[in-house]
């Protein structure tokens, strides 16, 4: 319940705010400035629960960037003798203790972290030591299985990603046809799980399914642009990549399929819908 959004019932309304029934937490205080005027005792309210500086359960109706158990890209607002205070989108900042910082954090910079509850204080904290939160068991993914990804870092070979919040994987630069950035959440597909347990991931759907989806995107773009696009089978690969986040080879396969279906005309530098 601490560090997460809950629906709690109002037990009492007073001048300072409202006291909510926090069940095993006891009373949870919601300040008056966050209490809508029409609410009264017996009503339920959606709140995020955290501990204040004195360790008392406190609520806010503001939505945080992330909740306990989630990964998020957070910015360091200030450094202190105990660690880095990070902006979580509410009035209360979250602490990243020094021993949970990998690498050492700097003020004004953003880091991918996992939110957790400190065992002793029960306060919400952040850690950029991501390895400790990932699954240590052998990965068991099927080839081309669709997975959820979080971009964790940029390396010499490509982008390090977190797969299904369980394992690290790599998306190699030569398979990337769209902008990627730290903390970004997107879909991907398992390309292979190597004997050493390392996982290769691709962003585009493998095989003909990818081409079919791309064909649908091209038709939509044509309809949105009056039936014409200045991208043919001789167009610049970078322009194709910028427009459809795909390779020129895949683009040519897709427009070739649409041409065979009698849906488009193809020129060297353009395509158009058949009338």
UniProtKB/TrEMBL annotation:
Pfam families: S1_2, WHD_CvfB. Residues 2-62 form the Conserved virulence factor B first S1 domain. InterPro entries: CvfB_fam, CvfB_S1_st, CvfB_WH, NA-bd_OB-fold, WH-like_DNA-bd_sf. It comes from the Bacteria. Residues 216-273 form the Conserved virulence factor B-like winged helix domain. Belongs to the CvfB family. PANTHER family: CONSERVED VIRULENCE FACTOR B. This is GntR family transcriptional regulator. It comes from Pseudoalteromonas amylolytica.
């Amino acid at each position: 319940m601490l560090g997460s959004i809950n629906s709690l019932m109002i037990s009492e309304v007073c001048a300072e705010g409202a006291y909510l029934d926090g069940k095993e937490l006891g009373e949870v205080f919601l300040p008056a400035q966050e209490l809508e005027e029409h609410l009264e005792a017996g009503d339920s309210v959606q709140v995020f629960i955290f501990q204040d500086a004195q360790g008392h359960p406190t609520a806010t109706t503001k939505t945080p960037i992330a909740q306990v158990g989630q990964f998020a890209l957070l910015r360091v607002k200030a450094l202190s003798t105990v660690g880095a205070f990070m902006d979580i989108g509410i009035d209360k900042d979250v602490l990243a203790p020094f021993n949970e910082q990998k690498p050492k954090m700097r003020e004004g910079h953003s880091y991918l972290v996992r939110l957790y509850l400190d065992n002793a204080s029960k306060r919400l904290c952040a850690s950029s030591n991501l390895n400790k939160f990932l699954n240590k068991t052998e990965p068991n993914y099927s080839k081309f299985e669709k997975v959820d990804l979080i971009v964790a870092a940029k390396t010499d070979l490509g982008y390090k990603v977190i797969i299904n919040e369980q394992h690290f994987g790599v998306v190699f630069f030569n398979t990337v046809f769209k902008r990627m950035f730290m903390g970004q959440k997107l879909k991907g597909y398992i390309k292979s799980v190597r004997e050493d347990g390392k996982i290769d991931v691709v962003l585009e759907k493998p095989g003909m399914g990818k081409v079919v989806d791309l064909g649908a995107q091209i038709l939509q773009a044509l309809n949105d642009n009056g039936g014409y696009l200045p991208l043919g089978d001789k167009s610049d690969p970078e322009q194709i990549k910028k427009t459809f986040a795909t390779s020129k080879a895949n683009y040519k396969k897709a427009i070739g399929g649409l041409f065979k279906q009698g849906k488009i005309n193809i020129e060297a530098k353009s395509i158009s819908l058949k009338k």
